[in-house]
Amino acid sequence: MSLSYCVLGSGSAGNATLLTLEHDDGRQRILIDCGFSPRQTALRLRSAGVDRDEITDVILTHLDQDHFYPSWVKPIERGSVRLHIHRRQQRRAAKIGLNFRHVELFDDDPWPLAGTATRIEPVPFAHDDLGTVGFVIDHHGTRLGFATDLGSVPSHLFERFVDLDALALESNYDRSMQIASNRPAFLKRRIMDGKGHLSNEEALRAARRIADQSCLSQLTLLHLSRQCNCPERVKRLWQDQAADLLPLLSITSQTKPSPEFRVSPTGSRPTRPATGNGVAAPSIAQPCLFG
Ligand SMILES: [Zn+2]
Question: How far apart are CA 266 and CA 36, in angstroms?
Answer without folding.
Answer: 33
